[in-house]
Amino acid sequence: MTELLITIDGPAGSGKSSVAKLLAAKLGAAFLDTGAMYRAAALTAMQTGCDLGDTARLEKVIDSTDFKFEIEAGQMTVKINNSDATEQIRDPQVTANVRFVASAPSLRNRLVKMQRAFAAEHEKIVTEGRDQGTVVFPDADFKIFLTADAAERAKRRAKELAEKGHKVDIDKLQQEIENRDRLDSTRKIAPLVAAADAITLDTTSLALGQVVEKILGLIKNND
Fold it and tell me: How does pLDDT run across 184-219, given as a tens digit for each residue?
């Protein structure tokens, strides 16, 4: 049974994953990387040669696939039909195709069930995404919404990709991030928006550790 549940939402590059990982480590909690779930679904569809615009076909692919999301050494690992795909799901092409899964209501419903099932297995959870505090866990103990300037988010994403050997055009990357913001904020189902009771933190000029300490302070003050 979950005793502590913290949601961290925000746009791409706002620092959600890094903040959630470090916060989970400091709290001795499990880190639920919801983006990994959407990426796993997108990767599976790509590997099967499925038309990503065919929602009915995507439903069948997801329903017939064995996804396993586990915590190992504080990190979420992803297995697709018993094959480790933890690194594969981070490929830029997978990132570009996640929108096909995220924009379909029936597919999001399947992923939400996976997220809730994962959370139910842990006493403490720090989860990150775009609709965690509004849709998936509306009764979370603490809800955080991170924001950051688009240019800064592009720099962060470029650095992350460069460290993995990917060459990127930072101007193009910023444009992609801004387009993603528009799509996420205007979609009909689970749009990117801060929950009414969420605390918003602008991370543009803050280091990772500073953001985490601010959140820990908020938790401590509410004990």
Answer: 888 888 888 999 999 999 999 999 999 999 999 999
What is the DSSP pairing of strand 199-202 with strand 142-147? parallel
What global pTM score does this model have?
Answer: 0.88
157's enclosing H/E stretch is helix 150-163
| Domain at 4-205: CATH code | 3.40.50.300
Q: Transcribe 78-94 into DSSP letters.
A: EEETTEE-TTGGGSHHH
Q: What distance in Å separates the CA atoms of residue 158 and residue 72, rounded to the nearest whole number?
A: 26
What is the distance in angstroms between the CA of the first residue and the CA of the last residue of the chain? 19
Q: Which residues contact 65 (CB under 8 A, 6 or more apart)?
A: 44, 80, 81
Domain boundaries of the chain, sorted by first residue? 4-205
pLDDT one-digit tens code per residue, 24-34: 999 999 999 99
Residues contacting residue 206 through CB under 8 Å, at least 6 positions apart: 214
Please provide residue 85's backbone torsions phi and psi, each rounded to the nearest 5 degrees. Answer: -125, 20
